[in-house]
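User: Fold this; tokens only.

Assistant: Input:
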Amino acid sequence: MSVRISGIDLPIYKRGVIGLTYLYGIGKSLSKNILHFVGIDENKKVEEWSDDDLSKIRKYISNYIKIEGELRSEIQFNIKRLMDIGCYIGTRHRKGLPLRGQKTKNNCRTRKGRKKTVANKKKVTK
């Protein structure tokens, strides 16, 4: 028996709090809040959830929380908006540089990509 919420299979042998974090957009604290609101013990394993518990969780998530594709598209739209208005963060996104004030002289290889070697000018000989 597998448990699916919005197209994602949750691991059935993990606790409920950890199982919900497999959904994009739900972290540990949000999963605790969801289970507390719905009234399910957070230490209860996913396989122990009844159909009623599962339907409560699905209903709560669909009504109050953006997850998976909807959240990803909203984030992409926000980044595109920042690039269109030409603000500082938008220009950093466009150039592929770090956004939040990090130094770029030595580090930030994750954001900049692999090193691109720049050749030196050759000296003119007489």
